[in-house]
Design brief:
By secondary structure, this protein is α/β, with parallel strands linked by helices. The chain has 15 helices and 17 strands. The protein has helices at about 10-30, 35-45, 50-80, 85-95, 100-110, 130-150, 160-175, 200-210, 225, 270-280, 295-305, 320-330, 335-340, 365-375, 460-465, and strands at about 115, 125, 150-155, 180-185, 225-230, 230-235, 240-245, 260, 285-290, 310, 365, 390-400, 405-415, 430-440, 440-445, 455, 475-480. An eight-stranded mixed β-sheet has the order 5-6-7-4-8-9-3-10, sandwiched between helices. A hairpin with a 4-residue loop joins strand 12 and strand 13. Helix 1 crosses helix 3 and helix 6 (about 130-150) packs across helix 7 (about 160-175). The longest helix has about 35 residues, at about 50-80.
Length: about 475
Amino acid sequence: MRDPQKAEKDPRQANDARLRAALEECLAARVLVPQKCAELRDLAATKEKAVERDYLLYLADVIPLQVERAATCAEMRLAHLRVLKSKAARQAELARCADGVNGTLHWFKYWAWSQDPRPVAPLAVTPFEPFEFQEGAIAWLDRLVFLERKSGLLDKSRDMGASWVAVDWAVKHWRFYPGFKALFGSRVEDLVDDKKNSDALLEKVRFQLRLLPGWMLPAGFDYRSHTGYMNIVNPELDCLLTGEAPTPDFGRQGRYTVAVLDEHAAWPHGGFPQWTASSQSTPCKISISTPKGKLTKQAKLRFNSEVEALSLNWRRHPWKDERWYKGQTMEMSAAEIAQEIDLDYEGSQAGRLLPMWNENLHVITWSEFADFYGEKARDEQGRPCIPPRWSRGMAHDVGTTQEHPAVILWGTTAAEDSRARLCFSLSGTVSGRRRASGHRGAIDQSGDGSRERMALAGAVAHLARRQRGTAAVRTRLRHPV
């Protein structure tokens, strides 16, 4: 796309020229679609693997949808611009955009943009007209931050536009909400702000600002003065979009309307100290991430009900189907699929020693275990217990930090002649209960978020499969501390 800014001395006129050029480019892309789709179908015909062939055919099917949606939106926006010629019409438009959540959705429809430089994208720059699931996320953010004043968690599959939702949402309120201040963070500092990296959050902000009409920019706004490193200022309304590196003291100083923790699950130290530190600066923290195991702060928030959660699973996108899913996973490991696509916290845990572990298959409560094993699994008062003559032991791995906590494991091995009531041999099976603690106290590693339900791990599920026609019994035991 040509850059009219170089030819225009007035930055507001440059914005107008740049905006019109981007909209016209969306219209021009229509004529490129037939040839691009024909190339993809021809390439698909050369592939021997069905998954590769189907993915290329998926792209050939979805590219016309993407381009037509962008072109139709561009036509609508150009028509809208034509009626906003007078000062009165523009003032009315600004007032409409400032009008609560309806104004936010209106602003997205007519003024929001996104960028995707990947070769598979038919257009690198497209109007961001939200899908229904994205409109739900926008309304969710408005409600949490401006009505309920509380934190939230958004977990998502890859390529769902979550980061663009957060960035454009922040730009809208930076422009229209007096005193609005947002703090951005990501897993490394360069993804917060880097003018040479279009993936950096604050560079996305600059991209969006360059595509607003000149009359929508704040009074007194100057690109050189007000879009410095880690700080984007609205001098008219005293608003600020700023960023920080993900250090343990992230957000500790300052006061903010909201803090956005992008890719929170991948932050240093598991994202624990940053969440705590930023609590001093704002009551509204938004964790946005794909999962990365169950031992991060993001996972604890997701399963401990500390905050309201919203999930953007790929199945909610109207254009994604099984061909897209299989195409994404062609060169991914099981853990990467769990992390990037499936929103699977168990499967996305990095460094898993037992990749076959599945909590749904390997967990039962103490009472379920006692019912399964029989009378010897209950004491004189009828409470579940370890059966007599089972070997028992304890191990302790000393640690003193969040990254390397102290871990205590209690274990028990079934006696040689142990049998369940269903006559399954339990000989040699092992169960264990694990608890970890670090410099900040106890760390629950059972995944259910309750210290009263610590985990006892076992391996007798395969025995239950011997029962005629019955499903495997889950075999990790839960027991009060």
